[in-house]
Known about the structure:
Elements: H1 4-9, H2 11-14, H3 20-28, E1 31-35, H4 41-51, E2 55-59, H5 84-95, E3 100-104, H6 110-116, E4 122-125, H7 130-143, E5 147-153, E6 156-162, H8 172-175, H9 187-190, H10 194-212, E7 221-226, E8 231-236, H11 244-247
Parallel strand pairs: 1-2, 1-4, 2-3, 4-5
Antiparallel strand pairs: 5-6, 6-7, 7-8
Helix pairs in contact: 4-5, 4-10
Amino acid sequence: MLTSQEQLRYSRQTMLKHIGENGQLKLRNASVLIVGMGGLGNPVAMYLNAAGVGKIIIADGDNVDVTNLQRQVLFGESDLHQNKADCAAEKLTKNNSDTHIEVIDEMLDEELGQFYIPQVDAVIDCSDNIETRYLVNRLCVEHKKPFILGAATGFDGQQLVVDARKENAACYQCFFPISETAPKNNCQTVGIMGPVLAIIAGLQALQAIKLLAGIEVKHNQLNVYDGLHNQWQQFNITKQVNCPICQSN
């Protein structure tokens, strides 16, 4: 059962018929891994922490830089040169001391991924490089863990749920095969509008909360946002028979 304090704190959430006390208990007992504590990871962590997710593991090896402050809303000028994961954990704990925050103060690699991903109920990709995304995609498919991706550059963003537990579920590499010649766009090369990150991160957090609370989440659907013209598009993707990740699993 929820404590009286939890009933009060999450009352606006538990009154939703799809959540209720049972859904809130599922959130309290859930654990997630957030990969990257930048422009996407900041709001994702804030919303999951506020929603009452019981354990949040955050991974990032970068330090806070002055160029981050335009969009990474957990950080301020006093946080410059501090590790992002450590700094975020301190802020999140102040906002909700009931949530257990665990820090990985380095970039997620194969060894760390193989250790942490089997422990959690879902993984949220908020990284800013495609190599990490391919790694996490492969490990989530291998360990049958739901994987909620987000990415944004300029005025544009995209979001996708990969859930290898589902029949015929496509993975990230089905839709974006590895290519040595593909441009590697990121915030450093093409810039980013901060609120676009908030929109994509909000959708990632919503998908995660629904999934953890036992609400059906659509997979095999790429959601694309055009912030310049305020338009959404949805694209259905299919599992590729020749995908090296899906074939092996």
